[in-house]
Amino acid sequence: MSLCWNNRIIADVSLARIHGFKVAGGFGFRLGLEFSVPAWDEKTTGPMPTVLFYPAAVQVGESEPYAIARAFSENPQPFRVTAFGSGPSGVLFDIVLSPAAMEHLERTRVGRGMTVKMRLQVEARRDGEVQVISDDVSKSFNQSDWLVALEQAGFGKTMLFEVPIPEGVVGDEHWSRLLERARLEFLRGQYSAAVSSCRLVLEALTDNLQQTAALQDANDLKKKRERTLAQREFVLRQAAMDYSSASHHVDSGLPDDIYDRRGAQMLMGITASLAASALAREQDVKRAAGT
Fold first, then answer.
1. Is 252 helix (H, G, I), strand (E, B) or coil?
2. CA–CA gap between residue 160 and residue 147 (Å, rounded)
3. Do 7 and 148 fall into the same domain?
4. Secondary structure element (H or E) that encloses residue 265, with its range
């Protein structure tokens, strides 16, 4: 794409890269543009214009793109037109998205890459003459590029809510790794795989804490009214394991992609909460026993 003054190219423009950055109450992204400025011959094309950038409208999506924000340049005059021209030079445009906007973006992305389109608007001036020039520039970022940007922006680790996993309990590193795996699968759009990883967390939790018998006892309907709070938590754990069972049983008769984004997101939150609570209870028991 090119910015032109009366059909004379001022600069060729390309969208080259995307990075994330953390901001309070939202998620920031930096769009890296590159400008190549050809040499300007004043004898044939007149005086050199001065170019100033307005905020750029940003859209995402391919078949049905939608606007998400306006991007602001770190430098309103990112290049100068000269008689010698200049090779590719970079400038960053920043956008900040609210949590709701990020959630909508991720819901429509469904684990794929992301196409970003910018509508550049500049004001070019020379000898009292002013032109407003527009140009569209876009790039399709692959899944890995986008996931890196999400990590840099801090999205994902706290997209549901923060649940601290207590340290110092045998096996907690294993469960944390499984939760991290579920989170990455979720971001890739592999929702059934994320559900499967959550089930592995709950099964490992039960086995390593030697709670299989207690789990079965708590789910005895004959003892429903006498359940303690801890036993009711076991019932929640069993319900979460039952919910995720289709991801482990290929002969269940259900489709492989039965779990959608909402289901996987729900189970990730439940699993993280159940793991954190169970480990905290185990610590309390050991502390009370003096071990």
1. coil
2. 17
3. yes
4. helix 261-289
| Owning domain of residue 7 | 2-153
- For each of the chain's 291 residues, which pLDDT tens digit applies? 788 888 888 889 999 999 999 999 899 999 999 999 999 888 888 888 888 999 999 999 887 889 999 999 998 888 888 888 888 888 999 999 998 899 888 888 878 889 999 999 999 998 888 989 999 999 999 999 999 999 999 986 554 445 555 454 445 557 778 888 888 898 898 999 999 999 999 998 888 888 999 999 888 888 888 899 989 999 999 999 999 987 655 555 555 568 888 899 899 989 988 988 888 888 887 787 776
**What CA dihedral angle connects 127, 130, 134 and 137, to 10 degrees?**
30
Please count the structural domains in the chain.
Answer: 2
Label residue 140 exposed, middle or buried (CB < 10 Å: 0-12, 13-18, 19+): middle
CA torsion angle 186 189 192 197 (round to 10): -30
